Amino acid sequence: xxxxxxxxxxxxxxxxxxxxxxxxxxxxxxxxxxxxxxxxxxxxxxxxxxxxxxxxxxxxxxxxxxxxxxxxxxxxxxxxxxxxxxxxxxxxxxxxxxxxxxxxxxxxxxxxxxxxxxxxxxxxxxxxxxxxxxxxxxxxxxxxxxxxxxxxxxxxxxxxxxxxxxxxxxxxxxxxxxxxxxxxxxxxxxxxxxxxxxxxxxxxxxxxxxxxxxxxxxxxxxxxxxxxxxxxxxxxxxxxxxxxxxxxxxxxxxxxxxxxxxxxxxxxxxxxxxxxxxxxxxxxxxxxxxxxxxxxxxxxxxxxxxxxxxxxxxxxxxxxxxxxxxxxxxxxxxxxxxxxxxxxxxxxxxxxxxxxxxxxxxxxxxxxxxxxxxxxxxxxxxxxxxxxxxxxxxxxxxxxxxxxxxxxxxxxxxxxxxxxxxxxxxxxxxxxxxxxxxxxxxxxxxxxxxxxxxxxxxxxxxxxxxxxxxxxxxxxxxxxxxxxxxxxxxxxxxxxxxxxxxxxxxxxxxxxxxxxx
RNA sequence: GCUCCCAUCGUCUAGAGGCCUAGGACACAGCCCUCUCAAGGCUGGUACGAGGGUUCGAAUCCCUCUGGGAGCGCCA
Length: 517
Fold this sequence. Notes:
The structure is a single chain. The chain is mainly alpha-helical. It is 45% helix and 10% strand. It has helices at residues 2-6, 42-50, 68-83, 102-115, 130-143, 153-165, 231-241, 257-266, 298-302, 307-315, 329-335, 350-363, 366-379, 387-397, 404-409, 423-429, 434-447, 453-467, 471-483, 491-498, 500-516; strands at 55-58, 87-92, 121-125, 146-149, 189-192, 199-204, 208-213, 221-223, 246-250, 273-277, 280-281, 346-347. The strands form 5 sheets. A 3-stranded parallel beta sheet has the order 1-2-3, with helices on one face. It has a 3-stranded antiparallel beta sheet with strand order 4-5-8. Strand 2, helix 4 (102-115) and strand 3 (121-125) form a beta-alpha-beta unit. Helix 17 crosses helix 19, helix 18 crosses helix 20 and helix 19 (471-483) packs across helix 21. It is elongated, with a radius of gyration of 31 Å. It starts with a helix and ends with a helix. The protein binds one RNA strand through helix 6, strand 7, helix 7, strand 12 and helix 12.
């Protein structure tokens, strides 16, 4: 903590240093790995984290679209911070200026907002912290933890192919480690002088202790020849400066961790607790690609998913709580624990996401569904302002739609003129014999003193009884008449929401069509 | 190639040596309910990757193999 603090005063690029939370978190015991038998150092890192408040971070790079893989690690970090009354930090890792785009950054910001994963601090941008990185870089070189390397890209490439030919792991051989003179005409990079012997143990909450031999690690480049710092270095400086206590990220980073720990140690900082979560695979078990779910998270909003449903789906990937499948955000916050997360990768299952979305839609209040539905109608080119009617439609449809988009598509008839009838439905239900039924229904409904589902229900039933036909012979023609299709919510509810005027108009129009059939 | 990680139904998971002739969920099939579509209820099939150990006893512990993944970049 002292060392961390040392790097944190008096400079302009500081973060609101988490104002001395010295409260010890009672829940830190949760970070004891489940497979304790593997961990001999449990006591140590427990102690290391027990006297600081939890600070987690989500650190995406805006080089591609934020997709569900990223969202899940963000969710885990957010959930963990919430559970421990900690702080969730958002940091945009945009040091790769070539590939970073404003568009991707915007998707991250909008996506996080849509999902409700709000950051307690940030967003911070690495590109605005360059002075700080240069400062640490200079100190590193000065202290002998890093050195300038004058090897050219060509030489490096050659070294690499030599090593590959010899079936060795490609790595930098340390040529410039002891170079004392600059090499004219070459802009040097800066490399971290990794320890040459011993090993590093990554104490991972999910994986247990993972040991890496330092001989496997080479001297990585921490600053490019143009002086800009690279990812692994920035992460280290940022996590230290931002006092991150728990790093939760994809397990594709597990191999980077030992180097980061070495740098942290060189900086005199205590490494955070690590949790490397398994990755999400595509539905076919292959790497997640655009074909599966690797689309912008905002795509899910377009397709009519509720944020809570997407989050629910994601939290259940690699984590469970008994037999429970449906979780509210509050339940997730109360129950989720990073130490319970599985070690193995899981495949993305669109069907289950759909099912969960329906479950969440069913359990939502119609009022809360209204704005989402409005959004979907807008996408369909149907402008709807009537909030009460929107809620009424949502209520009528909420258990028969897997997505809000689907709900809107199936509900256009409530708000817009019919654009004709579904051919099959009309052929079957708008027939010569249904014309008199429709006429009778029209008559009954016009005479109804009260326009509500119960009264409509009785009226429809009485027509069926009077004509001595099954309810289906009455309800289906009405359904086609008012919705244009053979599918809708229960007919009484449908008519109530539609309103008497529209209902009668459409029934009469359909009766004429039936007559002509 | 080297290093590291992972391994229960098609998929997500439960399972920390006996409670497991392996439980739940999605999907699928059938039935029930029913004015359509749903929702809901009931029923059904399918899994411990292989081989060795340890043990009275292993899905659970150990080893090997196999399979999958990640990293090895002046990308993040």
